[in-house]
Amino acid sequence: MLKECPKEIPAHKFILCIGSPVFETMFKDVEPDTFEALLAYLYLDKISLNENIECITYLGSIVKPHNAILFMSKTRVYDCPEFWDICWDIISDDPDLCYGAYSFFNIDFSTLNNVLNGPLID
C-alpha cells in the first residue's frame, strides 16, 4: 500500500510494477484521485475524462481547423464525446481547410472511417 497522504489506496505491487518499472519514484507526490484514475487504467484499461471538464475546455480552446481531425485521431481512445462534438463543430464550420490540412493525411484508419461516416457537412 502506498501511504504518502492520509488516504490509503490498496493496490497489487505486481500490477504496479508491470505498469511502470519506476513506479515508486514517479508517484511519491501524486494526489489520491489521480492515483486512483491511474489504477483504474492499469487494472481495467479504462480512462474517463467525464470529470475533467477543465481538460476538455482547454483542448477545445486550442483545436483549430488545421488540427481538428488530428486531435480526433489522438484522443479517440479516451471515448470523450464532448470533445469530439467540439471537433465536429470546427470541421463543419470549415471542412475544406480541415480536409486539406497536412494532419489529415496522418490520421489512423479508425479516425478516417469515423470522419467519412460522420455527420454530413452542408
Description:
57% of the residues lie in helices and 0% in strands. It has 122 residues and is mainly alpha-helical. The chain has 2 domains: 1-46, no CATH class; 53-116, no CATH class. The chain is elongated. The mean pLDDT is 75.
Strand and helix map with partners:
Elements: H1 13-19, H2 23-26, H3 32-44, H4 53-62, H5 68-75, H6 81-93, H7 95-100, H8 109-116
Protein name: BTBD3_6
Domain BTB: 1-51
Pfam family, one: BTB
Keywords:
122 residues, mainly alpha, 8 helices
> What is the percentage of strand-forming residues?
under 5%
Number of helices: 8
Structural class: mainly alpha
Cα Rg: 18 Å
| Fraction of residues in H or I helices | 55-70%
Query: Largest beta sheet, briefly?
Result: none
Mean pLDDT: 75
Low-confidence segments: none
**Number of DSSP strand runs:** 0
Give the CA-based shape.
Answer: elongated
Calculate the terminal CA-CA distance, rounded to whole Å: 56 Å
Order of helices and strands: HHHHHHHH
How many structural domains? 2
State the gist of this model.
The chain is mostly helical and 122 residues long. It comes from Lepeophtheirus salmonis (Salmon louse).
